[in-house]
Amino acid sequence: MHRAQVQARRYACLKPLERKVSEYLRENVFFTTSGMAWEPAIPVHRSVVGQTMSCTQMDYPYQYVPEEVAAMEALPLSGRRKRRSSS
User: Fold this and answer.
1) How is residue 5 annotated by DSSP?
2) In percent, how much of the chain has pLDDT > 70?
3) Neighbours of 68 (CB within 10 A)
């Protein structure tokens, strides 16, 4: 969409991007699966956005759902990865 607007030259302030939008998102935005404590979704999410920018946590302390905590603890992640995901 951005590229089409640049090509149309409708707005002088719009300039071409140096990289793909997806690259900017993967490097500058943290993503969370909060509210989606479904174990199969977590590995897919992490494979798409990468482990560094993926936060697999719930909305604690605003919401505390014991089943979500259990689901997160059961994920096939090392202790180090789990700690990194929750900070």
Assistant:
1) H
2) 83
3) 19
